[in-house]
Amino acid sequence: MNLKFSKMHGLGNDFVVIDGVRQTVNLSSAQVRALADRHFGVGCDQLLLVEPASQPGVDFRYRIFNADGGEVEQCGNGARCFVRFVHDQGLTAKRAIRVETQKGIIEPRLNDDGEVTVDMGVPVFEPDQVPFVSPSREVAQSLQVGDEEVQITAVSMGNPHAVQVVADVDRAPVERQGPIIESHPRFPKRVNAGFMQVVDRHSIRLRVYERGAGETLACGTGACAAVVAGIARGLLDSPVRVETRGGFLSIAWGGEGTPVLMTGPAVTVFSGEITL
Ligand SMILES: N[C@H](CCC[C@H](N)C(=O)O)C(=O)O
């Protein structure tokens, strides 16, 4: 199978983006892993597949696969690249589109300044919906991580996140705690582990050990999850500037029951063709 693709990134969180509208694409988990491999394949944190919409009132379907081959519910940095891809590839003339994901509909929009704003939907704290095994609905809960006990906020942006507050992200135990939290038994679908440093009420620094990909230079849904966790814990006020290792995102949230708006860049690095 010959596959045309674009290599893109959102703040260094990088993607192989494939047009599944004008080419027939059926990838196994093993083929996704091979494409994502940074030595034997193209290399990426996630693979994004563009498909025709499967329901009225929506422009496209958006499927997301982590580098480990697993299909997941949502990808924020990918959503910004998605709308730039379908626009630049001539798959739509719209600058604002409605996109169906595994867990709901998101609305990315190309702004005149070249950045992209995405309505990422309404965050969910209900433990059963994250999913997170928890007897309590407290916004901050204890989690045993190896021989350490940490306070986390569990929240879904369509995909699951466990966010903790640290004094200094540069010294956060991302490599040590990340893999343990990612596969913690209290997260039945595994989880993305966020480490957030509160700089002031309108800015944070963030690192994320991503489910199925390891630490990435930026995580869009992770930035959304960290901001809503910080606001819910009374530490932040909207809007919040999020500094990631790959650059800056702006996140706005009006509070419970309202959607999260994320704004940031989306870059095409090159296009290519691969034979699988
Ligand atoms: N690793 C995530 C998917 C990619 C999310 C991230 N790259 C983003 O920008 O939101 C998960 O398993 O839920």
Automatic annotation (TrEMBL):
The keyword Cytoplasm is annotated on this UniProt entry: yes
GO BP terms in the entry: lysine biosynthetic process via diaminopimelate
Main localization (coarse): cytoplasm
Annotated substrate binding sites: N13, Q46, N66, G76, N77, N159, N192, E210, R211, G220, T221
Calcium as UniProt keyword: no
Quaternary structure, from the entry: Homodimer.
Protein name per its UniProtKB record: Diaminopimelate epimerase
Species per Swiss-Prot/TrEMBL record: Oryzomicrobium terrae
